[in-house]
Structure formats: C-alpha cells, structure tokens
C-alpha cells in the first residue's frame, strides 16, 4: 500500500481506526477475500461515522482514486450475497 486513507481530522482516534478498518476490508475483498458478515460489520460502523450519502461518496471516491479499489462495488456485491458467503472481487 503506497497511499493514505481518506479521513476527516475532526474524527476521534477510534473513528479513524474504524474507517481505516473499513477501507482495509475493501482491500481484502480485492486482494484475497473477506466474509460477508465481517465486511458488513465494518461497513455499518463506517456508516455510523459517515452517515450522509454525499460524504460516503466523497470518501469512497477518494479511496478509489488512490487505490483503484471500488468500495461501492464491494458493498453492492456483499449486499447480494447470502450469510456465510465470502466477498471476493475479481
């Protein structure tokens, strides 16, 4: 990883850590695989920190521009999977 995760300096340390965990979950979906439940847990926590759609898009687009990994595509795929499935992007 040769990039920085997008974040807001107004977030608490715990919130920054949880947002980074979400972006790491997106990376896992592309680089290996991640269980749907683990990914969705990270996503739900991300949404607690970034509840607005516009802000979510801002941070996920910024992440995609530096990493090439689309959080949107992982979220979309994960939502369509059954419990117990693995999220694996190709």
Automatic annotation (TrEMBL):
InterPro entries in the cross-refs: BH2638-like_sf, UPF0223
Gene3D superfamilies xref list: BH2638-like
Superkingdom per UniProt: Bacteria
Family of this protein: Belongs to the UPF0223 family.
Protein name: UPF0223 protein ABE28_007190
Originating species: Peribacillus muralis
């Amino acid at each position: 990883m040769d990039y920085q995760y997008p974040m807001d300096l107004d977030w608490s340390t715990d919130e920054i850590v949880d947002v980074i965990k979400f972006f790491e979950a997106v990376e896992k979906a592309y680089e290996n695989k991640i269980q749907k439940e683990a990914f969705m847990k990270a996503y739900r926590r991300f949404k607690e920190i970034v509840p607005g759609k516009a802000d979510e898009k801002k941070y996920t687009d910024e992440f995609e521009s530096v990493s090439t990994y689309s959080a949107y595509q992982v979220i979309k795929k994960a939502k369509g999977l059954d419990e117990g499935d693995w999220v694996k992007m190709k």
